[in-house]
Amino acid sequence: MQTEVNLKSLVRKKDKVVYKKKLRSDEIRAAWFGRIFIWIMIAITLFPIVAVISASMAKGSAFTQTTFFPSEWTLENYRRVFEKTNFLLWLKNSLILCTAVALVQLVLSVPAAFAFSKLRFWGRKNGLMSLLILQMFPAAMALPAIMGIVFTYNLTNKPLVLILILAGGSAYNIWLLKGAVDGIPDELVEAAYIDGASTWKVFSVIILPLLRNMLIVIFLFAFIGAYSEFMFTSAILKNAEVQTIVTGLQKFIKDQFSANWTMYSSAAVMAASPIVIIFMLLQKYIASGLVSGSVKE
């Protein structure tokens, strides 16, 4: 009896009809145009990456070669970066600085987003709009005032000062997190209050676990922003022992007579590696975190 049932199920699976939608000619053309556009954009994106990688493995000091790919591949430039520069020190300083900035921004942004989303207080709407308006002004406008304070109190060459400067002004992160918190049903928060939970309990036990993916996205954005920041970093950190990746790379191309583009390219490839690795490891969290709060109940 069991054998007959199995045979019938196999026959049903074999006879199962798969329906496929037949595309119209205009839909086929639109699909091909979309594919061609994507291929062109991929080529445009990959071209500078391939150019920098090929330059990093070329001999000499010029960025451009007689051919797009070097005639002879070598890892000499990578070896010279480690031997003649403090690249590992720059990388260590950058990782410490960027991690601290990202953590401080999370500590400041997450409670603010929760307050603007789930709490009711005077000035809530105007306060959020004020943060957004302040974020519209470029950071260069604040540079003279900030540097005046730094030089007055002799705060140069202090990474902690740079961390505090870069960690502030995270209105964009607050807006992103607020959208994610808005996606959490109010009924869930109200049920916790009815059960006797305090505001801190609701925030730490209910809100934070549901924001895990979005927290990873905010951490990554803050990390990349601090990793590539040059203006304040070059103005505050002058000593060699506190240099970061962005200020260290400048040493290869500081003027047109001493520019060493091949070493610069190899250092740039290695400097970009941590960001690429982080993106690869956190890819699934980034995809889900970016759409957090996009669907409202």
UniProtKB/TrEMBL annotation:
<dbReference type="InterPro" id="IPR000515">
    <property type="entry name" value="MetI-like"/>
</dbReference>
<feature type="domain" description="ABC transmembrane type-1">
    <location>
        <begin position="91"/>
        <end position="282"/>
    </location>
</feature>
<keyword id="KW-0762">Sugar transport</keyword>
<feature type="transmembrane region" description="Helical">
    <location>
        <begin position="261"/>
        <end position="282"/>
    </location>
</feature>
<keyword id="KW-1003">Cell membrane</keyword>
<keyword id="KW-1133">Transmembrane helix</keyword>
<dbReference type="GO" id="GO:0042956">
    <property type="term" value="P:maltodextrin transmembrane transport"/>
</dbReference>
<dbReference type="InterPro" id="IPR050901">
    <property type="entry name" value="BP-dep_ABC_trans_perm"/>
</dbReference>
<keyword id="KW-0472">Membrane</keyword>
<feature type="transmembrane region" description="Helical">
    <location>
        <begin position="159"/>
        <end position="181"/>
    </location>
</feature>
<dbReference type="GO" id="GO:0005886">
    <property type="term" value="C:plasma membrane"/>
</dbReference>
<comment type="similarity">
    <text>Belongs to the binding-protein-dependent transport system permease family. MalFG subfamily.</text>
</comment>
<dbReference type="InterPro" id="IPR035906">
    <property type="entry name" value="MetI-like_sf"/>
</dbReference>
<feature type="transmembrane region" description="Helical">
    <location>
        <begin position="202"/>
        <end position="227"/>
    </location>
</feature>
<feature type="transmembrane region" description="Helical">
    <location>
        <begin position="30"/>
        <end position="53"/>
    </location>
</feature>
<feature type="transmembrane region" description="Helical">
    <location>
        <begin position="128"/>
        <end position="153"/>
    </location>
</feature>
<keyword id="KW-0813">Transport</keyword>
<feature type="transmembrane region" description="Helical">
    <location>
        <begin position="94"/>
        <end position="116"/>
    </location>
</feature>
<dbReference type="Pfam" id="PF00528">
    <property type="entry name" value="BPD_transp_1"/>
</dbReference>
<keyword id="KW-0812">Transmembrane</keyword>
<protein>
    <submittedName>
        <fullName>Maltose/maltodextrin ABC transporter permease</fullName>
    </submittedName>
</protein>
<dbReference type="GO" id="GO:0015423">
    <property type="term" value="F:ABC-type maltose transporter activity"/>
</dbReference>
